[in-house]
Amino acid sequence: MGEFCMPSLGADMQAGTLLEWKVKPGDRVKRGDIIAVVDTDKAAIEVESFESGVVEQLLVQPGEKVPVGTVLAIIRTEHMTAGAEAVAPAPAEPLPVRAGMEPKLRPGMVEPVARELPLPRPPLQPSPTARIVPGLAEGVETVPPVPLPPPTAARTERIKASPLARRLAVELGVDLGTVRGTGPDGAIGRADVESAAAGRPIPAAAAPGLLPETKAPSPPAEAKAPPTDYQAGMRRAIAAAMARSNREIPHYYLETRIDMSRALRWLEAENLKRSIKERILSVVLLLKAVAKALGEVPELNGYWIEDRFQAQEAINIGFAISLRQGGLITPALLSVDTKSLDEVMEAMRDLITRTRAGRLRSSELTDATITVTSLGDLGVETVYGVIYPPQVALVGFGKITEQPWAESGMLGIRPVVMATLAGDHRATDGRRGAQFLDALNRFLQEPANL
Amino acid sequence: MTEAEIRKTIFKLLGRIAPEADFSTLAPDDNLRRTLDIDSFDALNFFIALHEELGVEIPESDYGRLNTLAELVRYLSTQVG
Known about the structure:
CATH topology of chain B: Non-ribosomal Peptide Synthetase Peptidyl Carrier Protein, Chain A
Strand content of chain A: 15-25%
Oligomer: heterodimer
CATH class of the largest domain in chain A: Alpha Beta
Helix content of chain A: 25-40%
Shape of chain A: elongated
Largest sheet of chain A: 7 strands, mixed
Number of domains of chain B: 1
Shape of chain B: globular
Order of helices and strands of chain B: HHHH
Structural class of chain B: mainly alpha
Distance between the termini of chain B: 6 Å
Radius of gyration of chain A: 24 Å
Helix content of chain B: 55-70%
């Protein structure tokens, strides 16, 4: 009997809110199918099944916030279906939530936040219509919270409120306990929170330093997205992960200048052959070269867990994607080493689009084995990254700039990028790090082989 | 296509990328990437959208000359009839 639990989508995640079920009892699911949407502090995440089987029972209703590790659903696995004697009768009642259950952290669990110093990207004007999760909360707004038998003390204290109302309450700094619900069974809806918030000032302390000083303008008539307040949660998640990184990880830093003239000349010729839609961005060459170099220095690809390095076979590159409304998310480009440049470009396009639309999958937030951050768009030349635990390395790229370059006794002007490696000294030493940067440089000098 | 129409199309497409932008305050010589906080991925999407909307295929080598609204309008008016 497979238990589908509230996943940890980051070491700093304590609990998640089930927003939506994508399956119903009796549905057949395959490993990797998206079966639920879960709201973390940072974003709404599509959660995939780790098993194949038949959905037996859904134990948690949309709108409920439960601790990591709580059983959300029972999935009867294929194996168990075959062996009839092994199939336990389905419990007639929902299983009680196990109080005090330890979060089930999979090895290699990665926090879904960024590594390098956060990039505050203040919007040009206060904008409540964040690009994250458009329509998602709207979709669940009408789902009334279904009362459950209260098997634990924690459950009985639960305030009945729609997910949108909960989010709105956080955003407006309203204590749900003080709101009178007018919905079914006294459930609190959006209007209840809004009327509770009306007539009193927005507490400035609701999200210190994050919300604009002035109150955001009223939402446009045609609201494209519901108001979201992932910013405060995202800041907290980034803060927790980065503080842990600087506390626990003895970083070392190496940097090398890489001549990009061959790579860019090759790419320009390639892109000339392509329609505008098929063009490849130069960062894709950098990502692919990182993946190839990791093949030579596998000690940088994996996790430091339980006082030892645990190498990972797949090269899943977490790619820092900044969000227009501030903060950033670092979802993973999976198996970059096995993809062609076109496939990496396509995967990156898909990932950026979904990150900004708030439709990421759980595996993309938990499977990164190393992180790459590229800050070149803003003219930064060198990035000194903060490693994302439990990963052991972060590769940074700055802007590609024209620089004087001496080679074979000749001085010329070349496009040059500064590549940096932040390494975890527990897992590797500077020499291995240097070998990685050397390999990276080598692969970028032979772009046709990438 | 008049310059005003081209400008309108540009604003429409940029609005998809930077929905919070207020184009009435955008000066013709402002650097679009910097002012609107557009990264290279956004820029590529913008050029793809321009291609779909106006049928203009902008070669990569011209990207560097298209930094401001004025430059874009001038460039596009020579490309579209």
